[in-house]
Please model this.
Amino acid sequence: SSGLNSEWPLRPGVEEYQVGQLYAVAEASKAETGGGDGVEVIKNEPLVGHEQFGDCQYTKKIYHLEHKVPRWVRAFAPAGSLHLYEEAWNAYPYCKTVLTNPGYMKDKFTLSITTWHKPGRGSIENVHDLPAEKLAQRKVVKIDIANDEVRPADYKPEFDPTKYSHERGPLSDKWQEQCEPVMTCYKLVECEFIWRFLQTRVEDYIMIAERRLFTNFHRQVFCTHYQWKDMTMADIRALEDATAEELKDQRTNRGLQGTTDNK
Model:
């Protein structure tokens, strides 16, 4: 198994980030869906008094990834097996997400992402309360949404925080030290892929892919602030319902689009 602790400061405050995150999830889902691939929403409903997470928003989705993984992954994955099932319990500012592949890998693959959203500049050493043995295995990766390099294929000037011309932008080289308000997303990524000879390669690939996803997604969250800053949670729920219907149509009737990895 592999573990990664990613953390990065963000310009929004903790409370408003909840809206921005969900807005960007909806928009990113539409941008990644077409040609049979992308996001399928199965459930999106509130839960009250969940035994582990209390009051939260529960979502269940299927990610269809036939054209979004490297060729070497497609080489060993039989046709129809590249579907990840995601369950998420959003008890903001805490969130738990678990991805599995029940149709093929079954209990031999699990990807778990545990997130805390906290005020401040990333100074909390062990926000997930990991025991000593997990702390010893943990690798901390700090992400700078303005200055970290992104792949040329991923770069979009409209999602470049150093070129953002609306309120709170652009971000400078030292934005993490200077900006107010500021918060940090602390994400604990844990992956288990049990397959002889492929385990290390696949787990390493997943960790790289998660960092890529986190970086690109949060550049988008920041650079769409002017679009979501006045939205309410009621607006977000209406957007999510409309997006779920759009995704059904896009997956069937639109061509491939969004992130790919043809290495």
Remarks:
- The mean pLDDT is 92.
